[in-house]
Write a structure and sequence with these properties.
single chain, 60s Ribosomal Protein L30, Chain: A, about 30% strand, 2 domains, 17 strands, about 25% helix, 4 helices, 7-stranded mixed sheet, alpha+beta, 6-stranded mixed sheet
Amino acid sequence: MAHDRSRDGRTPDPLPHGQGRTIIRIGDAIFVSGQTGVRVGGCHGRGPEDAAAQADFALRDLERLLEQVGASLEDICKLTVYIDDRVHRILIYRTIGRHLRGVHPVSTGLIVRGFSEPEALFALDVAVVSQRSGPHRRLRKYHSDAARYGNELQALDCEFCMVVRAGRHVFLRGQTGQTIEDRLLIRGDAHAQAVQAMRNVKLLLGEADASMSDICRVVLYVTDRAHLAPARDAVLAALEGIPCAVSEIVVKGLASTELLMEVDVFAMQSQPN
């Protein structure tokens, strides 16, 4: 199968260090370079007021890239949002929410220490599956303003969901120690939070007509290296020997300071359902 590989047509190399803004389509799956607010000749500044401007540029650039391979923002299944400082979180998410109104992707949000471009305040990774072969199922839709992150409400103004089923692909919202009913029952215990997160994973996969055996990749995030071993033990116990790729990353923070871990799970069935 030939791959459709497109690059930003305005400049031959719009990002520093040889990183082109690239988009590749393989069948119904679309792979896009991580998007930031950095543009040719610089970007907006680094104050909190500039976070929304950087996010707006990144989303507009993403929309244009998707158009090059016959896709749109409505094909986005999963967002992973990396932010360098919690103070920028609400402004960035509000901008994302404005661009993705009505799309309802799943999302994982991480606070990290920085990016390759020192001017960048955030980076956005997306998982995209074309709907040409069939519509997506977006389950447990919710508005972020009504959701709790830890025990706090945050005025992010985004429309998300818990699960996206796109053909054979199943994408889950990043799962934490919060229950499906949005309650954080466990504080200060990374192992117990990870146990709850994997319970959520099993339930959500079932709602998408998938199972734990369909998991192909797991990414475990913890906010302190001390949380890694106990959280890993809980995740691996829930996987029960299922062979899958596992990555472990220590991040600066998650959506709330009460959350010690988060797990991203990607599943794929051998046949579309």
